[in-house]
User: Fold Extracellular solute-binding protein from Oceanobacillus jeddahense.
Amino acid sequence: MNHGASNTNLDLDPNDDSKVRYYATSDEYRDMLEYIHMLYEEGLIDQSIFTIEWGQFLANASDNLYGSMIFYDPIELFGEEIGSQYNSLAALEGPDGHQSYNKLSSSVWTPDNLVITSENPNPATTVRWMDHFYGDEGAELYYMGVEGETFEMEDGEAVYSDHILNPEGDMTFEQAIAQDLTWLGSISGIIKADYFQGGETAPQSMEAAEKIEPQVIDEVWPRFTFTEEENRILQSTGEDINKYVEEMRDKFITGDEDLDNWDSYIQTIEQMGMEELQEVYQAAYDRYQSN
Assistant:
């Protein structure tokens, strides 16, 4: 994942920076699975990690059953009493000396939420409208809404109005904000800490980000874009391979599948159409580079 997490199982070949790599077939990926399997076998990882439901996860955390995790801000998740016990870490150094943090997505969150059809009488105006949300004014409108209606300025910071922060009845924060704003995945834009009010911008999260910054990878890829024909391949061959990889990942970690069967795993992926899938990804990467 040396260029972030936006493209499933895809990164740059360490031996050839002109080629993409499906890293779930690499030797390094196998080594990672072997290590995580050891942790799982020793009981250092929750044995229900692949099946646990959200409510049970929160209950376990409330009972102080977790010593560490890679997740969102613990205070936001578990409350002050439990969450404040956790402290953030910088990236750990791997056995080969690698020390990077790469579980990152592009700041351009969804590059595929705008379509201009042949029926649009003003495509240039539509593009200008979309472009507005990549600037500060647009980001404020997108994430915070209208001053005096959905947020107020306090000490130079935009803060949601009380009817959003403290909604009536059983309404959640997400449900309250959805009544006034559209930012929950509706259009494209850049996520900006000044306006995005989520667990990622909570105080503990920002402190963690500062610690991890020296180990952050240099370039985070956005989600690649594909042609109509490439999408057909991704929706068939691509989804089948990714589903198989995910299932086998879980089995290798839990021990339901022995890592001695790695060669068979690779052979199965190749028979499912890995070469064709690789060509699709390579074409998309080449277009990304040319832009």
Remarks:
- The chain is about 45% helix and 5% strand.
